[in-house]
Amino acid sequence: MSCLANGVADLEQLPEFIRPHFKGQQATEPLDARLTLVEAKKAASDQAEKRFLEQALQEVEGRVSELALRTGMNRSHLQTLLKKHGIRSKDFKLKAASSQSSPSASTTDRGELC
After folding, report:
1. pTM of the predicted protein model
2. What is the mean pLDDT of residues 69-85?
């Protein structure tokens, strides 16, 4: 493929059906030309890190301990990352609780739970 692309193959040379398709949001913000490459990489990394944490917290319904186990991270380091990005795990617990309908408790004649 690189021979056909004059030595440099890129995603544009791949057929559409095998090009990678990214889940979630693409970086749609225009690139600030005043940034250095290092600064631009840092900003992109921070943005990806935040999206990862938000999506992962949603999947574990805000349980930081569960997320730490799944990602192999130390729980305190994970807490530090959440604080860095202004993410509150309890916000994801509330979203999970509100999206699930609470089952109604059935009772017997004496009012006891079954």
Report:
1. 0.57
2. 94
